[in-house]
Amino acid sequence: xxxxxxxxxRQESLERLVDMDFPGYAVGGVSVGEPKDEMLRIMAHTxxxxxxHKPRYLMGVGTPEDLVEGVRVGVDMFDCVMPTRNARNxxxxxxxxxxxxxNARHKSDPQPIDPSCTCYACAGTSGVxxxxxxxxxxxxxxxxxxxxxxxxLGPMLxxxxxxxxxxxxxxxxxxxxxxxxxxxxxxxFKGDRARGI
Length: 197
Description:
197 residues
């Protein structure tokens, strides 16, 4: 479904595509440089107008906040380069906001990227988060060092972490939907992310 920022064009595109009875529908032309409020307006316009019994795919939208909002308005699937691109550029996603590895404050920080995370970068081979008593994994200081030196292990570990974060976020979304608590989960998610690191 296309149509830029024009709801009438999107509606026309949507109606014609639905008439063709595809097995699923892709919503494109969103998150291509328009202001955030415009992106959210168009994102909210289209998915719930598509057949609910067929997959609804939103192309290229990928902040954690946008994924949760997308699910709220009826999106089933997403794709985005954000977890890997941001990892390569020193930005890591955590429960409490984005961690910018290049900030000097991480130079001596002994904590893992996200103390609640069980990915290899944060918890090592134990799979036990720092919050649960694990002490393996890589510190923010070491990750900062790898990023500053251009050592390729840095973006590899950062990518492992960011992908793990996204997989866990979407599992939380699925679990909340199954439990009938999506609104509560979304509110907790928003509060945690706003809290900051």
